[in-house]
Amino acid sequence: MMDQTEPRAIFERHAKAAVARRTGFGLRERRAALTALLAALDRHRAKLLAAMKADYAKNETEATLWEILPVQTEIAHARRHLRAWMRPRLKLPSLTMLGTSARLRPEPKGVALIIAPWNFPVLLALGPVVSALAAGNSVILKPSELTPATSAALKAMLADALPEDLVAVAEGGPEVAEALLDLPFDHIFFTGSTAVGRIVMERAARHLTPVTLELGGKSPVIIGPGADLARAARWIAWGRFANTGQTCVAPDHVIVPRGQEAALLAALKAELGRLYGPDPALSPDYGRIVNARHFGRLAGLIDDAVAQGATIAHGGAREGDRNYIAPTIVTGTTPAMRISDEEIFGPILPVIAYDDPAEAISQINARPKPLALYVFARARAFIRRVRAETTSGSLGVNLTIVQFIHPNLPFGGIGASGLGAGHGRAGFETFSHMKPVLTNRLSTLPLVFPPYNGRVRALTRLLLRFLR
Ligand code: NAD
């Protein structure tokens, strides 16, 4: 844990170095930093995997696939495209701007604060670090206190990869985050809950620091009439129960045409057997809830739903001493239940029937804008309708979750699910100030400077006619 005075000292060193970095941290230096990060990730991979396992029994293959590989991809993508991203973009003039030349020049914002959650503790910490470095910033990273072994392993890896005045790690909980939020960072990239996102934005407002907020919420799945239920179940079961359901873009609940619930349930149960065997408690591929508080929260959601008449259609087993909750499917939920209102963020999947697509869509639209929405359908018209009549951070069609790792797609939420975007070029631009630079070559605009005599008035009339 870090001493409360330390954030300010680190920040001041970073702020000083940031000025020099405006000229001394070009394409070559940024690529070298990314290469050093990639090499350190390789050297420290085993330690990071062991730390995630120690923190919450995260399977090593799952962590390699969904934590390590996406960071490697992000680095490789940034290295490959950095020259093009950094290049000033030529902008054409309008009529009145004839005689000038316009360029959009990306420049580093300066010192970035990255606050990361625990649920993908490596990916969601290092992904934004890659974008910040690519854009020429220095970073103070605050990983989550709920995955302490991984936070310590990240700190060791980053100290091994890069100088502390380029990337520093501030370990600790909300108190450290709050101390950091007192400082005038040039950008804050926060990934976490909507409630804490609100605090971060309020605190950032004091310094007018721009923020990117990658938040959570309920991401629904809507199944169209006549969808391929086996295929849908394969993606939904994996998306919901991977990482023990603790994934921001996981399907939160499924809405399915009435009459197809039983077939979907059967397909989901078959999938769960395939993914985690007859007893998921014994499967090395199925993890644990991160801590006792979240275990209690999830157990409370199930108990509240059952007490109000919901049915556990599958799973339901739990062991408090090991923070284990079996993959659980519930039916018969109603809007009054807590499970229908709060982001579930765990291995519980409500399956809800709808009678009419219009009603299903209006239920989605009545809630805060989701981080992700998923539609499973064969009929293009149904997919088009869901796409056109709803809004969400991203839309997945006949798949779940993997839109998050497409290197050429920005990722972010909208409304209550977030503000701004990260990944690839979008991440680079988030951490850059896209500075417009307009240079006078032979501008004719002095022709309309005062005094506003007859000639200027005639030119003005001409312009009005042309620009109509
Ligand atoms: P959280 O909001 O509790 O914590 C996130 C980070 O904020 C942690 O580092 C924590 O120490 C810090 N923090 C806590 N209190 C703070 C305060 N008062 N001021 C400043 N910082 C503070 O979230 P979590 O439990 O770690 O993560 C789960 C949530 O994150 C879920 O809602 C999930 O949907 C969301 N999430 C979103 C994305 C995304 O990309 N949109 C990704 C992962 C998780």
Can you give keywords for this protein?
single chain, 468 residues, alpha/beta, Aldehyde Dehydrogenase, Chain A, domain 1, Aldehyde Dehydrogenase, Chain A, domain 2, 2 domains, seven-stranded mixed sheet, six-stranded mixed sheet, 15 helices, 44% helix, binds nicotinamide-adenine-dinucleotide
Major β-sheet, in short? 7 strands, mixed
Strand order of the largest sheet: 10-13-14-9-8-15-16
Helix content: 40-55%
How many separate helices?
Answer: 15
Poorly predicted segments: none
The Rg value, from CA coordinates, equals 25 Å
Strand percentage, roughly? Answer: 15-25%
Small ligands present: nicotinamide-adenine-dinucleotide
SS elements, strand count: 18
Write a compact overview of the structure shown:
Helix content is 44%, strand content 18%. It is α/β, with parallel strands linked by helices and 468 residues long.
